[in-house]
Amino acid sequence: MPLALPTLNALLNSLAGLLLVLGFVFIKQKKVAQHRACMLAAFGVSSLFLLSYVIHHWRVGSVPFKGTGALRAIYFAILVPHVLLAISVAPLALTTIWRGLGGQLERHRRIARVTLPIWLFVSVSGVAVYLMLYQM
Question: Which of 22, 42, 78, 133 is the most buried (most CB within 10 A)?
Fold first, then answer.
């Protein structure tokens, strides 16, 4: 059972990434209701991820990477920007959602152009970190 929460976290990150891409596709197709549903679902899934992540690390602490050499360098090259950008996702996502739901569409579009790539990178790199840490 020790891998249950990390595996759940990777699944939640994968689902969030999928929802973000679907939301992007829907808004490009001018399907606003579907876009809204996907983005709110992505935020919900990411919130569940954060809760699960905190619980896991509260229970087990930090998990060191056991790889060596070039693999270790690659791991940290992914981990460092992942962590730094992950810090910004919650406030960016909340601001983006607030503006979208509040009808501030031009301000929503402007910040969404920043939020989406960061949020997507964090979701995908989170899965990569999981794979490298727990599956290699």
Answer: 42
